[in-house]
Structure formats: structure tokens, C-alpha cells
Amino acid sequence: EDQVTQSPEALRLQEGESSSLNCSYTVSGLRGLFWYRQDPGKGPEFLFTLYSAGEEKEKERLKATLTKKESFLHITAPKPEDSATYLCAVQAFSISGGSNYKLTFGKGTLLTVNP
Amino acid sequence: NAGVTQTPKFRVLKTGQSMTLLCAQDMNHEYMYWYRQDPGMGLRLIHYSVGEGTTAKGEVPDGYNVSRLKKQNFLLGLESAAPSQTSVYFCASSRTGRSGNTIYFGEGSWLTVV
After folding, report:
1. Residues 45..104 of A with a Cβ closer than 8 Å to B: which?
2. What angle do CA B33, B38, B39 make, to 5 degrees?
3. pLDDT per residue over B36-86, tens digit each?
4. Are A100 and A46 spatial neighbours (Cβ–Cβ below 8 Å)?
5. How many CB pairs below 8 Å do chains A and B form together?
6. Distance, CA of A46 to CA of A64 (rounded, Å)
7. DSSP A48-111
8. CB-CB contact of A112 with A11 (8 Å)
9. pLDDT tens, position by position, A9-20
């Protein structure tokens, strides 16, 4: 069974204080690891997909990295508008060999950035 | 850009009532999904569809039914609503592909069963 664990559950930062969010995963065969951002009352918004260990992707103040067991979302010099819940999810190759693109999500990290 | 559109956005039901949540996507995606999101539980897959006319069960399918009569639409039905089905429901869609496939979400439907 695929499992995703995110830590910490909540993180409070001061504006400009860099930090990282962790996503540990267990999956039979990783097709892709996804990061989403979710604002209150909204649906998850896609940020990144990582496919293989060693891969990195960046978008503005966010940088996602991937190893064989975990992914990190690094936030550099965050601003209050970066406050949101960040969700990590894995997509696995189907054991039966058929197509299966469903995501297994972690419970998220609630990030609050104070001005 | 409409993307994934869900209706209604808010609904209150009495226990035992039935209702249907509608999802429409304009991205010509093959795959569609229904998730529910509950505090402390994260997003959990209810049902999904890999193409028009096909549906499959996810992690938490009990009490729900789905239909995919048209490629762009995916309907989630509650035949006899229960308080345990109070949740936020998200529809999502993705295209097919060999690599990891990005799933795009709608804005959510808030359902309360009293």
C-alpha cells in the first residue's frame, strides 16, 4: 500500500525566514511525486512533478527535490502570500501493469508566514 | 480558462436524501476522479474513470455511485446521504501518458448532511 507522510503538520515562519517541508513516501514503483498548494476554501493547485531521484524543480521562492525515500519543498525568503497548506502526493505504477494515475496524498503541512 | 468545474459549490442535505454532484472539464482529459477531503484525513479517492463509459472504485467508494456518460462529465451520486458523508468533495482530471500524469482539481463542493 502506498503511503505518504508529511512533516511538520504546521510551520510558522517570519517573512524572509527560509525553511523546508518534508514528504516521506513508500510506494511500489514511483511514477511521479507531486506537490500542490491549497488555499483555504480552494482546490489544490499544482506546483511540481518530480519523476526520479536527484531531480529538482524551482518556481519563484519554491524548490522541490527528490530522493528515493523523500522529497523536500524548500521555501527561500518566504512572503505572507506563501501561506497555505502544501500537499505532497505520489503516483505509482500499477502492480497489475494496467494504467492507474490516481494520487495518494499526505495530510499536508500548514505554512503560515508572518509579516 | 474554466478547467474543472464543479456544481453545486455548497449543499445541505437531510439524512436519507439523495443528490448528485456534477463535474465538467474542458481540457479533453481521459481520466477523471472524485476525492473527498476531511480534517486530519487528507484527500482520499472515492471513484475514478479512465475513459467515457468506464468507472472504478477508489479507497472509500461505499455509499457513492458514479457515471461517466460523456468524456467531459463525471457525476458523483449519493443515494441515501449519511452524516459521515459530510465533507468537501473535489473533482479532478488528467490526460493519459507514460510519465507521471498531472492531475488538475476543481474548486470543491461543500456538502453537509444533517
Report:
1. 45-46, 49, 51, 87, 89, 91, 99, 101-103
2. 145
3. 999 888 899 999 998 999 999 999 999 999 999 999 999 999 999 999 999
4. no
5. 58
6. 13
7. EEE-STT-EEEETTEEEEE-SSEEEEEE-S--GGG-EEEEEEEEE--TTSS----EEE---EEE
8. yes
9. 999 999 999 999
Kindly determine whether residue B43 and residue A103, on different chains, have CB atoms separated by under 8 Å: yes
Counting DSSP H helices and E strands in chain B, the numbers are 0, 11
Contact B6, B106 (CB under 8 A): yes
Average pLDDT, chain A: 92
Summarised one tens digit per residue, pLDDT across range A37-67 is 999 999 999 999 999 999 999 999 999 999 9
HSE, side-chain direction, 13 A CA sphere, residue A18: 9
Q: Report the distance separating Cα B75 and Cα A101, nearest Å.
A: 19
Q: Write out the three cell numbers for A30.
A: 514511483
